[in-house]
Amino acid sequence: MTSLKEQLVSLERHAISDLEKIRNEQDLDEWRINYQGRRNGQLPKLLEELPKLPIEDRKEVGIAANELRDKLETGYKERLQEIRTAELQDKLLEESIDVSLPGRKHAIGKLHPTTQTIREISSIFVNLGYQIVDGPEVESDYYNFEALNIPPDHPARDQWDTLWLDYNNADGIRPLLLRTHTSPMQIRTMEQQEPPIRVIVPGRCYRHEATDATHESMFFQIEGLTVDKGITFADLKGTLYTFARKLFGEERKIRFRCDFFPFVEPGVDMSIDCFSCDGTGCRVCSNSGWIEIMGAGMVHPNVLERVGYDPEIYTGFAFGMGPERISMLKHGIDDIRHFYNNDLRFLEQF
Ligand code: PHE
Predict the structure, then answer these.
(1) For labeling, which of 3, 4, 129, 172 is most exposed (least CB within 10 Å)?
(2) How distant is the alpha carbon of residue 333 from its chain centre?
(3) Is 170 a catalytic residue?
(4) Ligand 1, from 261, 299, 303, 317: best to mutate by most atoms within 8 Å of Cβ?
(5) Residue 289 in contact with residue 273, Cβ under 8 Å?
(6) Which residues pair with 200 in a beta bridge?
(7) For the whole model, what pTM was predicted?
(8) Whose CA is nearest to atom 7 of ligand 1?
């Protein structure tokens, strides 16, 4: 039978060679139990034999056994350390961030060009003491036409190609439509407020249009209304002149020409001298030297009477303009359809 000493040497050889093959903590634990486990570990088992040795051999084998126990313990600790380091390195590698990669840019949103123009125009009027109000896009025939001095079957209705809602009332009449202009808010405001009135109304309008570079079936308008005692055409001119110079530059000239809108008398269209050619004639002003920017006029007495205002006491002026058209003029945009195509290549320019 091989001596205890020889068995220790062989145990050491096996233990060390097993240890070298171990790659994870679980195998390492099993290894430790196998060689050092208190109950059935190979080393403690061998040591049970120690007392059976002759006394003179006992000391030497005992020392060798202790050394082996230390060796196994140290081997265990070193291997554990190595395994843990390797695991950590794997983990770091897996989770590592390549700081040299270019960052992902966040797209920064901005206001739609129409909204920007509406805000710019609105703030000019707010500084002149105007209040901003809002109104319904689905309107009644009454507010969109009748109360504005445009009776049924009046040829002036042809000026506003109307989208009617597919709904008939008890009399078989279609009373609802998509508002063709923001002017119905003149009536609603006068019904709700007492003079003095100074409001502007930005909002969407709809027309049954064959769309082209200057016509869209959905577009915006900004309506304005001033009503008070003693308002005259001079107030209209002064206000709109101030507005145009604030928006287009201090040196702008203004031209008023007669125009017809059933809800104003007199009615005008207002033009500014072309800021692109300074009035000498170019593409922007179709060689006329003038650019039309809005319709306006003194509120018609019939309109005032209908909302219960005495036209002998109260007078006022109204105006309406298209912010897309103004934006097109200011930025040299050649087609109104660009605004609502949702093409970022266009929208991001503003
Ligand atoms: N509502 C008119 C249009 O759509 C514009 C306008 C408003 C004219 C106010 C005069 C006064 O054409």
Answers:
(1) 172
(2) 23
(3) no
(4) 261
(5) yes
(6) 132, 224
(7) 0.72
(8) 320
The per-residue pLDDT string of the chain (350 residues; one tens digit each, 9 = 90 and over) reads: 468 888 888 989 999 999 999 999 999 999 999 999 888 888 888 888 888 888 888 888 888 888 999 999 999 999 999 999 999 999 998 888 888 888 888 888 899 999 999 999 999 999 999 999 999 999 999 999 999 999 988 888 888 899 999 888 888 888 899 999 999 999 999 999 999 999 999 999 999 988 888 889 999 999 999 999 999 999 999 999 999 999 988 988 999 999 999 999 999 999 998 888 888 888 778 889 998 999 999 999 999 999 999 999 999 999 999 999 999 988 888 889 999 999 999 999 99
Query: Which are the contacts of 177, defined by CB distance < 8 A and separation ≥ 6?
Result: 138, 139, 140, 141, 144, 162, 163, 164, 165
H or E segment at 264? strand 264-273
Place of tokens 């079957």: 153
Q: Which tokens in the block code for residue 218?
A: 């959905």
* Cβ of 181 less than 6 Å from ligand 1: yes
Q: Mind listing the domains of the chain with CATH numbers?
A: 2-94 (no CATH), 113-347 (3.30.930.10)
